[in-house]
Amino acid sequence: MKANVLFIILLVFLTSLFDTINQLLLKTSINSLESNVNGIKKAFIFIIKLLSMPRVWLGFLFCCASLVVWLLALSKADLNFAFSADSMHYILIALASRIFLKEKVGFNRWVGTSLIVIGIILLTYSNA
Amino acid sequence: MSKRKVTLKIVLFLLVTDLLETFTQFCFKKSANLQGDFLFKNLGDLPAFIKPLLFSPYLWIGFISVFLTFILWSTILSKIDLSVAVPIASFSYVLVPLVSIYFLHEVVTFLDWTGILFILAGVIFVSMGSAKSEAIRQ
C-alpha cells in the first residue's frame, strides 16, 4: 500500500458517490418518459428524448468526475483493494433509492449491504 | 413476468462480461500507474494528472472494453432477470484480485480474501432483494 488507506477509501467513496448521483439523474430522467419501448423506432425516439434532457448531461458530467477520481484512486492504491472497496456503491445506491426515489429496500438487500460493509471494513483493516 | 431461463449461452455471455470487466480494471490500473508518483495538492492539479493518461493506449483500450461490456450486459438483461444476472456477473470480485496477483504482482492476504468473500455474499444478497421486489411489482 503506497498511500494512506483512509485517503484511498475517501477517493473510492467519492467515485461511488458521483456514480450514484449519475444513476439517480439517469433513473429520474428515464422515469419521466413513457416506459413502453417496443421496437427500434420507439427505442430511437426514447434515446433522442433522453439526450435532450439537461439532467442526463449533468449525469454524464458526474460520470466523468467519477472516472477521474477512480483513476486517481488507482494511481495510489492496489487494484484488488480499490476494486473491492468500490462495492460500496451498492450501499450508496440502496440509500439513495430509499431516500430520493422512495423505493422499498427489502430485508435481503439490507443484509447484503451489511455484509458488504463488513467486507470493506475487513479489507481496510487488512490494508492499513 | 419472469424472463426466459438461463441457457448455457447466457452463462457464457456472463463469464465474458466478468472477463471484460476485469480486463477494463486492469487497463485502467495500468494507465493510472503512469501517475503513481503524482503529488495531488488541490483541484487545479487535475489537468496535469489527466493529460498523460489521455495519451495512454491502456486507457482507450479500457474505454473500448467498457463499451463492449455495456453492449453485452444490455443483451444479457434483455434475456434474463437482473437478480439472476448479478450474482453470476459478480465473479469479477474474485477475478480482479487474481489478475492483481498474477499480472500486477500485488499481495492478497487471507484477511483480504475474507473481506472479498463477505462482499461477494453481500452482492448476491443485494440482488436477491431485487428478485423479491420484482416479484411484488408483477
Observed structural traits:
heterodimer, A: 128 residues, mainly alpha, 6 helices, 80% helix, globular, B: 138 residues, 77% helix
Give a description of the structure:
- The complex is a heterodimer of chains A (128) and B (138).
- Chain A has helices spanning 5-31, 40-51, 54-76, 79-85, 88-99, 107-127.
- Chain A is an all-alpha fold and 128 residues long.
- The longest helix of chain A has 27 residues, at 5-31.
- Chain A is globular and about 50 Å long.
- Chain B is an all-alpha fold and 138 residues long.
- In chain B, 77% of the residues lie in helices and 0% in strands.
- In chain B, helix 1 runs antiparallel to helix 3 and helix 1 (8-32) packs across helix 5.
- Classes of the chains: A mainly alpha (128), B mainly alpha (138).
- Chains A and B meet through helix 3, helix 4 and helix 6 of A and helix 1, helix 2, helix 5 and helix 6 of B.
| Strand count of chain B | 0
Identify low-pLDDT runs of chain B. none
Count helical runs of chain A. Answer: 6
Major pleated sheet of chain A: none
Mean pLDDT of chain B: 87
- Principal-axes shape call of chain A: globular
Percentage beta strand of chain A: under 5%
Biggest sheet character of chain B? none
- Overall mean pLDDT of chain A: 89
Give a count of the beta strands of chain A, DSSP E runs of length 2 or more.
0
Distance between the termini of chain B: 6 Å
Give Rg of chain A in angstroms: 17 Å
The greatest inter-chain interface is formed by: A-B, 41 and 50 residues
Q: Mind telling me the C-alpha Rg of chain B?
A: 18 Å
Describe the protein's topology:
The complex is a heterodimer of chains A (128) and B (138).
Chain A: H1 5-31, H2 40-51, H3 54-76, H4 79-85, H5 88-99, H6 107-127
Chain B: H1 8-32, H2 46-54, H3 57-79, H4 82-89, H5 92-104, H6 110-137
